[in-house]
Each structure stands twice: as structure tokens, then as C-alpha cells.
Amino acid sequence: MLAFSATLMRHGRSYLLWLLAATICVPGVAVGLATPCGSPESSTLTFHSSVSEVRLVFFATDDRNHPVDALQRDDFAVVDNENVIRAFRSFTRSNAIKLDVVLLVDASESVQAHFAPEIAAVQQMISQWPWSPEDNVSVLSFSGTEPHFVCSGNCRSSLAIDKLASVSRGGTTPLFDAVEMATYFLIQRRQPDLWPVIILFSDGGDTISKTSFNEVLEKILASEEQIYVIDVGGSSDETATLQRFADESGGRYFPFRQGGVEILRAVIDDLHSARMVTYVPPESQTEFHSVRILPTHNLKLNFRCRQGYRRPSGNR
């Protein structure tokens, strides 16, 4: 574990500085809905700015689902509204990262059989992640009629970790309201050098939220956060909900039985493997541009990214 942590500290800090600057604060960037390759377009909420350059964050894996370290710019092509793009303005993998993470903890009645190991996994994630001093970590629990912050901004202290064991539990499940609250929290704190991430522990059930699934999904996509889901339940219908949160935000889904250490390792490896390309958007009469990434040489490569972006009607 020490060797693993050292490796993470060497490599996990800097690659996403460019990503946030690209998608949030760079003038002339397409800022729109973020959905992954292969997912259907599912929302209409978007932030608009003038579009002179598309900046696309993506992940590349081999046929064994391992990150591809030696990816070159001629190994892939972007398909933007069926226009093949290979003339990229830039192709980069950054080396710095500052994270703004919200850990969402389901404490409702439906997860009580798994609550103790769930809390242990959350505590392990906080204590064993190779955080940098500039990373922000918040914990939001949800049960009963509304979600509650356990701690906000700096939850890496032993006091904050201990508070997790005494969170209110039982009752109904306001899952969608909790995700919406976490999303608004991240938007309010957004800075060009912070990447917003939600790590959601839940069984996927929702029994009382005022916000619908589609409404909260729109807000997720507009905020450009990624959601990494740890499924502590296993019901097929509720699993589908959790998988959509992960897939459409560009995050990943994990069954809880995979184990806290392996999930932690997989999430950090995933973040470390991100790439970004920039290119001039093709002319189009449509507001929404669909996006795919395809291999050009090695057909065993797989790519994960948002499915598209929206451009203002005045810039078609």
C-alpha cells in the first residue's frame, strides 16, 4: 500500500489543471452538456458561450479495460456530427490536479444491512486517498426528508472521519435531492483549477425526492462534474439508475462487493488516465453536436467521453 500511495503521489496531481480551465474559464470554449460516448442525449440545460474551439476530455482503455499510457494523437479520430476530426489544435495529458470531491453517503433505511461496511469504506477512502493540500473533500449524507452535510470543504481530519459513524440514519431516501444539492455545492465553489467529482455510495433507490431523475441529470451534465458510483444494493432497476449517473457524467460504476481498496485504486487510476483534445467545431445547423471517438489503427482501443456539446444558435 505504501508503494501504491507513493506512485499515486508522483503521478496523480497535475493532469486535470488544463481540463478545468478548458471547460469552464477559457474564453471561446464550448461549454455544454457532458455525456459519455455511446449514451443517448438526455438533457437540455446548458451554459452558453461563444464557440471557437471544442475541448474534449476522454479516457482510453485497451481490450482488458486497462488505461492506455502510450496513446498518440494519430491513434484516434473524433467524429463530431459525423464530421471526422483529426486536425487537433492540441492533444495533452496534464500532470497537475486539484480535486473538489463530495462523498455522498446513503444512510436511509434501505441500506441499513450494508451501512457499517459502507461507512468503513467512506472512512477508508478519506484516510487513504493521496490528497494534496489543495484538494477539497466534503461529505453529504442523505436519509429521511433531506440531505445533510457532515462536513464541508475539509473533511480529511480525524474529527470529520469520526463524525461519519454518528450520522443520522433510517427513514426514506432523497437520493435525487442529495445529488442535486451536491451539484449546486460544487457549482458554487467552482474554480478554473478545480475538477468537481461526486463519489456516490447508494443502492439507487429514491422514495421522497422533490427533484426527478431527469431534472437532476440535466444539472449534473451542465455542471460537468463526474460521478463515480459505488452500488451498495444490487437491484437491477436501481442499478440501472446508478449506472446512468456514472455513464452520462463520464464517471464509472462499481459494485460494492469489489472492495474499498480496489475501488479507490480504480478511481484514481481512471482520473490519472484522462486526455484532452481541442479542435475547431464543424459548421452545423443543429444546436447539439454529437461526439464520438474512434480508433484509427488499433481497433481494440476503447474510448469513453461525453456524447456531445451544445453551441449557441447564433454560432451555427
Features:
four-stranded antiparallel sheet, six-stranded mixed sheet, 316 residues, alpha/beta, 29% helix, Rossmann fold, single chain, 8 helices, disordered C terminus, disordered N terminus
List strands and helices in order, with pairings.
Blueprint: H1 2-11, E1 14-15, H2 17-25, E2 54-61, E3 76-80, E4 83-85, E5 90-92, E6 94-95, E7 99-106, H3 115-128, E8 136-143, E9 146-151, H4 158-163, H5 175-188, E10 195-202, H6 213-223, E11 226-231, H7 236-249, E12 252-255, H8 260-272, E13 275-279, E14 288-295, E15 302-305, E16 308-310
Parallel strand pairs: 7-8, 7-10, 10-11, 11-12
Antiparallel strand pairs: 1-6, 2-13, 2-15, 3-4, 3-14, 5-13, 8-9, 14-16
Helix pairs in contact: 5-6, 6-7
Would you give an account of this structure?
The protein has helices at residues 2-11, 17-25, 115-128, 158-163, 175-188, 213-223, 236-249, 260-272; strands spanning 14-15, 54-61, 76-80, 83-85, 90-92, 94-95, 99-106, 136-143, 146-151, 195-202, 226-231, 252-255, 275-279, 288-295, 302-305, 308-310. By secondary structure, the protein is α/β, with parallel strands linked by helices. The protein has a single domain, classed as von Willebrand factor, type A domain (Rossmann fold), CATH 3.40.50. The strands form 4 sheets. A 6-stranded mixed sheet has the order 9-8-7-10-11-12, sandwiched between helices. It has a 4-stranded antiparallel sheet with strand order 5-13-2-15, with helices on one face. α5 (175-188) runs parallel beside α6. The longest helix is centred in the middle third of the chain and has 14 residues, at 115-128. The N and C termini lie far apart (52 Å).
